[in-house]
Amino acid sequence: MTTREGYRFDSAYLIARDALLAERTPDGYWVGELSTSALSTAVAVIALYLVDAEKHHAIITGGLRWLSENQNADGGWGDTVKSFSNISTSMLCRATFAIAKAENEFAPTVQRLEAYLDATCGRSPAERAEAIRNRYGKDRTFSVPILMTCALAELVPWREVPRLPFALACLPQSWYRFLGFPVVSYALPALIAIGQCVHHHRPTWNPVLASQSLAKSPSLKVLRRIQPSSGGYLEATPLTAFVTMSLASIGKKDHEVAREGVRFLVDSVRPDGSWPIDTNLSIWVTTLSVNALAAAGDLDALSEKEKLLTWLLGQQTKERHPYTGADPGAWGWSHHPGSVPDCDDTPGALMAARSLDPAGDLGDILRGLRWVCGLQNRDGGWPTFCRGWGKLPFDRSGADLTAHALRAFQAAWGDAQQVRFATDPPMEHRFLHTISAAAVPSGLDYLRDHQRPDGSWLPLWFGNQHAADDINPVYGTARVLAAYRDWRRKNSEECQNGVSFLLNVQNTDGGWGGANDCPSSVEETAVAVEVLLDLAPGPQVERGVLWLIEAVESGRFREPSPIGFYFAKLWYFEKLYPLIFTVAALGRARVTSSRGAGSV
């Protein structure tokens, strides 16, 4: 490259890197900022209104005003201010104005919303209820809470709200994965609270269904036992608000669970009157940031690495999780108590810890590896939270999760001979070899079997609203190919097909969107470029690098896109994603350029 081009390249990387480093907290880790959510705001307002409308009047008014000011042009709402309108969020907003008795005050807003709903899903309550059920299929994790809220607002009759078997929560936790719950593993609080709400408002003469009344008190004890100290289940406004409004609607607004839920909601409201989808993704964005700097070969730019490592290892779980039953030794997405250990954050934390201290004591790492190994499903893949809960999509194995687990194994084993073991080296080595002999080949087999005919893989927790069915094969394929790269399987048929897919869906502007013909975004361009620099360096990838350089120079690298899924296709964007991914991609370009792998 010319001297001027080299200057632009280095300058762009340093701008992105310094912007990312500037986002660190005084304690050395990253917190980020999740997008504000119309859905979260709607259900939080409802919960606070049903508990004590007078006491929370100012917060309720602020939430209603925010919703009115952020209505989409078509009359609906999406999950974020950048999202297309959808029926779920729009129906919840409709319920909010009804329950809060604000339909007259915000009449123009409600009129535009009704026009959107009429055009999208019909005018009758039955049509609207059916549209909500159709959006989620067999998974009732989100459809039942939405329908329950609409029933509380008298927008649909209670007969449209499916019952939930809340009594099952009283059975031993070890039985849960065999019971065929109609909700996903992390939704136990919703099963209990919403199940009781529907049972209360939809009485039955069926003796079997009526017998659930015997489980009211015991299941509420379970609900309280699994509530985190912050009051927020999963640190999530929607789940906590659904639980709180359910209890308030059946005369239990003074129950300790409801009081703690209200405390969480009041503590979580933002200055503009809105709520985010979750408190934060502090562990996730911290490990992504560390791993991005590691990919760039620039960890020396990270000050106080030992302090950061101490913080990260301090977030490793020490006890069995109260309702997913996850063993200790893992990481969740946030350092707040409502976070749940999972198989995306745990591999990320393991990789970051090894990068921060490659020759350190492997004890904490091995505990994490044991946890990951124990979560592997019989199909060879890895799920998010719980092994064996394979009935519903968000509990099944995922290609992106599986690839992340495989990368964590490789990161831990790459320097195995240089590791300082605290105890019993032979046992530790036998453990490593046992996993190597079974878990990794099975995981690679899973990836081979779940590659799509076009060479792509789909991620579980990311999507793209511009793509058919909201899929994001670019993100999924890039993340899976990183595992093939790390395990030196560049020449495998699966890897070659994945590379061909990414190259074939590059946009004419040099960037990538979530799928073919989707608008280019910083996040998707960066993840594609980062992995292709190692697997297929050449002119096409150079165009992607140039796209990112121009994004940095124009400031667009700070503009996040709503590509994240937060449970049940609930969209979000994270302020740090474009910064992190840009640092990883441009930093990787510097590494490959210096070793002669490419001309950028």
TrEMBL record:
GO terms for cellular component: lipid droplet. Pathway: Secondary metabolite biosynthesis; hopanoid biosynthesis. Coiled coil: none annotated. Residues 16-92 form the Squalene cyclase N-terminal domain. InterPro entries: SQ_cyclase_C, SQ_cyclase_N, Squalene_cyclase, Terpenoid_cyclase/PrenylTrfase. The keyword Repeat applies. Pfam families: SQHop_cyclase_C, SQHop_cyclase_N. Signal peptide: none annotated. It comes from the Bacteria. Gene3D superfamilies: 1.50.10.20. GO terms for biological process: triterpenoid biosynthetic process. GO terms for molecular function: intramolecular transferase activity. Keywords: Repeat. The keyword Repeat applies. Residues 283-590 form the Squalene cyclase C-terminal domain. Belongs to the terpene cyclase/mutase family. This is Squalene--hopene cyclase. It comes from Limnoglobus roseus.
